[in-house]
Amino acid sequence: MFTKLSDTTLFFDVIGSGLDDSDMPLKHKPILIALNGGYGFDHAYLRQGLDDLSSDYQVIYVDLRGQGQSAEVKLNTINFEKMADDVASLMTNFGIQSCFVLGHASGSFIAQKVAMRYPDKIKGLILISSSMGMTVIPGKAEKGYPTPFLKDRAEGELLDIAHNFFYSSTPITEEDYQEYFHQVGPYYMAPDKMDQFEGIFKFVTHKMDLVNHFRGMNPFFNSLGKVDSIQNPCLVLAGVHDWATPAVGSMMLSKKLANCEYVEFSESGHFLFIEEHDRFKDVLIEFITKNN
After folding, report:
1. Model-level pTM?
2. Please, are residues 35 and 61 in contact by the beta-carbon 8 Å criterion?
C-alpha cells in the first residue's frame, strides 16, 4: 500500500487488525511503527522478528523515502531529519495521534529524531542496536566495559573487506556489496547463530546509489547533547556480541535518556529480535503494556 506525502510517496504494510476481538467490547490495539536500519534497505528483514507481534499490536512497516518500494527521490532529500518528518506525516495521514515507534540500527536514529521533533506523537520508543552515533566514543566512565570487535572473530581478507565497506572514500560496487554481506555478514550474529544470517539477508533489497549514500551519511549521525530532551518512555536493547553497534553505545545512550529501561541480550549480536526472539517479545510486551 502507498501513502502520498508532500514531496514523495511511501510504501507501507500493515500486519494485524486494529481491534482486539478477544473480548467485548472491541478495544483498539496499540500501534507499533517499525523502522529498519541498514544502508538504504527496505523493511523486509524486520518481519521475521516482528510479524508475530500482530496478535497483540497493529504493526506498521514503512519503506522510508527512496527505499524499497517507495518512490524514488533525489539523494540530497534523504537525511535523518527528513525521514523523521516523513514518519510524522505518515501518522497524520493515518489519523494516528500517538503510537510506539521501534527503530533498529540506523532506523533507531530516525526514531530518536521523531521523538525530538514530535514528542507528542510518541507513546514510547524501542531502540534496538542503537547509539548516539558512531563518533560518540566511550569515555572514562565506560572504561573496561566489554566491547566486541570484528577482529576478535575474523582476520585477514575479511577485515580488509569490512574496512573497504566502512572506510573507503570511493563508492563501492555491486560486487563489493555482495562480497561484504555474504562473507562478513554472518559475523553480525552471535558466534553460535552465524548460519542464520543468510536467511535474514535474503529478504533485504537494495539500490547501490542508496547504499553509498548511507555509507556517507550514517557515520555522521550524532545525537549527543540532544537526546536529553526526550522525555518519552524508552526501551533500549542491545546484543552483547554486536560489534557493528556495540552494547556500550546503547548503554551510554540509555543513560542520557530521562525515562529509559536498558536490556542486554547475552546470546545475540546485531539482530537480537530474531536471535533471542522469545525473550525480546517478552521484554517488548512488558514495556508496551506498562506505557500504553
Report:
1. 0.96
2. no
